[in-house]
Amino acid sequence: MNVTLDLRSYSDEALEHQHDYHQLVLPVMGGMEMSVSGSHQLLQGSYAAVVPAGAQHGCFADTDNRFVVADIPSDLAPALARLPKFIELDPALTHYVSFLHQQIIDCEGGSKASQTSQRQMLLLLIQLLQEGYGESDALDKRILRAKQYLDDHYAKPVTLVELAAFANISSRQLSELFRRQLSMTPQQYLIEKRMQQAWQLLEQGPLSVQQVADQVGYATVAAFSDRFRKHFGRSPSELKRVSRR
Predict the structure, then answer these.
(1) What CA–CA distances, in Å, run from 210 to 102, 193, 227?
(2) Residue-wise DSSP of 47-74
(3) CA of 55: how far to CAs of 31, 95, 160, 194, 242, in Å?
(4) Most buried of the four, 66, 133, 147, 210, by CB within 10 Å?
(5) Measured between alpha carbons, how far is 22 from 37 in angstroms, rounded to an integer?
(6) CA 165, CA 173: separation in Å to the nearest integer?
(7) Alpha-carbon distances of 236 from 91, 203, 241, rounded to whole Å
(8) Where do the DSSP E strands lie in the chain?
């Protein structure tokens, strides 16, 4: 299956089922009762649900509601299965959900966001969730060391050889472990980190696109804007306009 990202509302007809893909249920209006693998929570405000592939889950709503819902192939994001079933989103994630909500609204009535753009938006969301709520101890210590190095040096050019030497592992092993544990290569992780920081800086408002490009490691605005558009389906300038609204 492909990734999907859309808006859904739920009725007062109780539902209970399971599916072979992960699902994120993120509230933007109203709320509903939800159960996942025997645990229960009112999804409302900042409370969201992570439904692992194969988990029995159900929901019931007796008020108007709207949710950003992401359906994600299990092999694209195995880390989601290790997250808590219910999460209280922090302010950064709450803002990102608002951005996703606006992104979907902007696409309604026109051309849908490409699968590539949806995938990149969801990878960033998954990364934010993993950083905030994941169990880092489950990762290989060498991967943790390499990941921390990229987190600290994302604004600089980092080669695979340099990163492998810092983690005390061969380049081949580093790439294999990254794919296995983080579902991406070290270079993809570096790009995702840069895009995460760029989105947060643009959403905060005061910096220009040129200043943001400088801070996340791009030599030119053109190169930064091209990468940003490939990730999110819109330019950095467009995101700044959405954030101001």
Answers:
(1) 24, 18, 14
(2) EEEEE-TT--EEEE-SS--EEEEEEEET
(3) 21, 28, 37, 33, 36
(4) 147
(5) 13
(6) 11
(7) 21, 10, 9
(8) 4-8, 15-17, 21-29, 31-36, 39-44, 47-51, 57-60, 66-73, 86-88
What the block records as the tokens of 229 is 């558009």
* Cβ-based burial of 109 (10 A; exposed 0-12, middle 13-18, buried ≥19): exposed
Kind of pairing, strands 31-36 and 57-60?
Answer: antiparallel
Rounded-to-5 percentages of helix, strand, coil across the chain: 50, 20, 30
Residues recorded for the chain: 245
Q: Which domains does the chain have, with CATH numbers?
A: 4-115 (2.60.120.10), 139-245 (1.10.10.60)
- Cα–Cα distance, 196 to 188 (Å, whole number): 12
Question: The whole model's pTM is what?
Answer: 0.65
